[in-house]
Amino acid sequence: MAVFDPKQVSVLINDYRVQDWSDGGDVIVATFSVDHGALTVGAGGRGVFIQNPDESGTLVLQVKQHSRDNAYLDALRRSQRTSIKSFTPLELSIRDLLNEDVVTGANGYFTTPPHYTRGSTHNPMTWTFVFEQMTMRIERGLFE
User: Using CA atoms, how far apart are residues 13 and 68, in angstroms rounded to an integer?
Assistant: First the structure.
């Protein structure tokens, strides 16, 4: 049987640990921005695979609505928005400490701003980032 513990996933943005997750099975989503390549088949039926050098990726995080993590991320977002010239691009490190999966990102920026939603239920804050370079290493995982 495989073992997973969401408390054993460390997400660092510029060495700040984001950890006050909303509920759900998709509070941390990292994806590559484009396919790794494409196959083009000519009229003669022979193909050529062109590898795409684009290593960029997108990260989406969902954090509880009144978390201090939101205050940290919002301060970074406002810094980017008010002075892109002096803004230091974001660095990302995600580590599943139990299963040893690793995602890293370099030269990141905020894209879609979070929505402010309040009502009679919990409304997570959704943060969206892009990284010029993203890497993923998915391991076999811990089995009992």
Answer: 14
Give residue-wise pLDDT tens across range 117-126. 899 988 999 9
d(CA 63, CA 20): 6
Closest by CA to 13, choosing from 66, 82, 64, 77, is 77
Q: How many helices (H) does the chain have, and how many strands (E)?
A: 1, 9
The CA–CA distances, whole Å, from 96 to 24, 85, 109, 129 equal 17, 34, 23, 20
Sign of CA dihedral 11, 34, 130, 20: negative
Is the CB of residue 128 less than 8 Å from the CB of residue 59?
A: yes
pLDDT in tens, 13-45: 999 999 999 999 999 999 999 999 999 999 999
**Surface-to-core class of residue 72, CB atoms within 10 Å of its CB (0-12 exposed, 13-18 middle, 19+ buried):** middle
The tokens describing 45, both together, are 């039926």
